[in-house]
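Q: Sequence in, structure out?
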Amino acid sequence: MQATCDPSTGCGTMNLSDGTPCRDGNRCATDGACSAGVCQLTGADGIDPDGVDDAPVKLAIRRFVLRKNGSSGLRLLAKASFTPSMIVEPDRSGMTVELDDATGRALYTATVPAEMFEANAPRTRFLYWPEGPTPAAYAGLKLLQVFTGGRNVVVIAKANVPSSVLESPLVTEPVSRDTAGSALTLTFQWGSRCASNPVKCSGRKRCQPM
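A: Exactly. Output:
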């Protein structure tokens, strides 16, 4: 749908034409199309879909905390896992961490280039960790660790996030600051591949500053 305003009837929404490309707020979707006002995602969940037989790859979000960090900014801690169909090697592809609000708007993005990752000898752990007390160079990202030795890939991210992320409501309508009613989407992208899943902010998965 798109917003429209008419001097005689006021403002409202109208359906986009059938076939109009859409993502329905899904960061990893690329081949959706509007049909009768609904975004139909016809393919896999990936920029270059990381799936088997076009099955979507979803993050299993184990922990997600976004809370106040002093007088300015927020502290992010996220731990998630997914089952890839192809090898994950951040020291060759780089990796991006992104948070979107419920409307699909990007609130925070941090990209670590491939050369900043260190791999262990068996290439089952990839680590980005800035040394020294200086602020992290990549959008405040303090740690990005990727474990690939098991059936699932596990990703841990820690970052100092600017407080400007709160300028966008974390829910669609009605606008709410209620923790239980808030939602974010967490996405990891490596090279041309992508895995994503919404975070429902309740209990230990806290999105609003505490």
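The chain has two domains: 1-43, 47-200.
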